[in-house]
């Protein structure tokens, strides 16, 4: 191609995002624990809704997402006019970046923050600003110290990925209150539903005009393949996002499945309870084998090894046993492996393989 045809500045600085692997050469019965997917899968009601929607695939989908926004409002007690629906929450965060940050602006996130944040920042030509954490926990003072008159967006996931740690609502509020006036706090709540009774920042969104919350159907709802997410924020921000999204951004089966998943609260509750039970069981089992982790509030644990060599060796052993977990060296955690909480048999398989690796069997 002619050298005179060039992409926008920043785009060629992006390293391609690598998703969790799902295949191992020559292995059957592979256990994929690398993408924080729900081992119980989606609600049956969601699958049936997607199937029903397939009869009308010749029709364009809803453009205002009214039915899904209304269901979100009923379940989460939010104002449906201030709910925005996107193609996964990643799409919501990307549109926010495009709308509010550009060349010369800064987008702040923390050192072990979600790998997509620097990609969103660079894609819109903004400058990513990486802030240290405190022992794998988001540090509000460090974030506030990094803010400048150029800061437009501050991204934190709470619970955080890949650390699984959280900060409390008083800290989140202190962060929102301390930001410079031109900066918006974005609370990525991809794992919020795994925390019993957690409002994910909803009250703060309603109390302030500089806070936005994003949520997803990809994690507890088991609909990662459908690509549905949503955001809740100031009316002015929602109005901006609606101007730049595709008018038919969500497919009809995706909208139908998400609405049905949301209404099947019994399935969601079962997933939350099962996740907490087996997550804590797995964390204890690994700790007894000399592999500690921070208390996780999400659907994965961040297993810590002595060093990078041991983490790599354990990863190789797990692979030889048909188990795929996530290496997180790219997140500044080369001595760790992020392990999604599977179902009971999945967790037992991981514990057994780690015990073999540690020579405990
Ligand atoms: C998985 C995840 C998301 C969700 O992405 P989707 O686009 O909704 O599938 C967002 N943020 C974090 C931190 C995640 O781990």
Question: Residue-averaged pLDDT, rounded?
Answer: 97
What fraction of the residues are assigned to beta strands by DSSP? 5-15%
CATH topology of the largest domain: Aspartate Aminotransferase, domain 2
* Largest sheet strand order: 2-8-7-6-5-3-4
Radius of gyration (Å): 21 Å
At CATH level 2, the architecture of the largest domain is: 3-Layer(aba) Sandwich
**What is the overall silhouette?**
globular
The biggest sheet amounts to: 7 strands, mixed
Number of domains: 2
Classified by CATH, the class of the largest domain is Alpha Beta
Structural class: alpha/beta
Q: Helical segment tally? A: 12
Low-confidence runs of at least 5 consecutive residues: none
CATH homologous superfamily assignment of the largest domain: Type I PLP-dependent aspartate aminotransferase-like (Major domain)
């Amino acid at each position: 191609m002619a050298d005179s045809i060039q992409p926008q500045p920043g785009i060629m600085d992006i390293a391609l995002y690598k998703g969790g692997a799902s295949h191992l050469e020559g292995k059957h019965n592979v256990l994929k624990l690398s993408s924080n997917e729900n081992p119980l899968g989606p609600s049956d009601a969601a699958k049936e809704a997607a199937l029903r929607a397939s009869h009308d695939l010749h029709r364009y989908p809803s453009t205002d997402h009214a039915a899904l926004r209304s269901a979100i409002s009923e379940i989460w007690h939010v104002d449906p006019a201030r709910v925005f629906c996107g193609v996964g929450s990643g799409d919501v965060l990307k549109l926010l970046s495009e709308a509010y940050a550009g060349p010369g602006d800064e987008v702040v996130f923390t050192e072990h923050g979600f790998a997509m944040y620097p990609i969103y920042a660079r894609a819109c030509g903004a400058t990513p600003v990486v802030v240290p954490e405190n022992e794998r926990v988001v540090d509000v003072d460090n974030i506030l110290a990094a803010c400048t008159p150029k800061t437009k967006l501050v991204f934190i996931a709470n619970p955080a990925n890949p650390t699984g740690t959280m900060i409390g609502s008083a800290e989140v509020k202190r962060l929102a209150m301390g930001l410079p006036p031109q900066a918006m706090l974005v609370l990525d709540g991809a794992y919020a539903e795994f925390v019993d009774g957690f409002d994910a920042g909803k009250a703060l969104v309603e109390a302030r005009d500089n806070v936005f919350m994003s949520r997803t159907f990809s994690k507890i709802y088991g609909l990662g393949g459908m690509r549905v997410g949503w955001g809740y924020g100031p009316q002015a921000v929602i109005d901006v996002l609606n101007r730049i999204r595709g008018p038919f951004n969500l497919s009809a089966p995706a909208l139908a499945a998400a609405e049905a998943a949301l209404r099947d609260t019994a399935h969601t509750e079962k997933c939350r309870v099962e996740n907490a039970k087996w997550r804590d069981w797995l964390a204890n089992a690994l700790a007894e084998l000399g592999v500690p982790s921070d208390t996780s509030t999400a659907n994965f644990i961040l297993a810590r090894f002595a060093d990078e060599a041991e983490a790599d060796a354990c990863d190789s052993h797990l692979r030889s046993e048909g188990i795929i977990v996530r290496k997180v060296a790219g997140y500044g955690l080369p001595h760790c492996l992020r392990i999604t909480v599977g179902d009971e048999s999945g967790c037992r398989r991981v514990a057994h393989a780690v015990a073999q690796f540690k020579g405990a069997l």
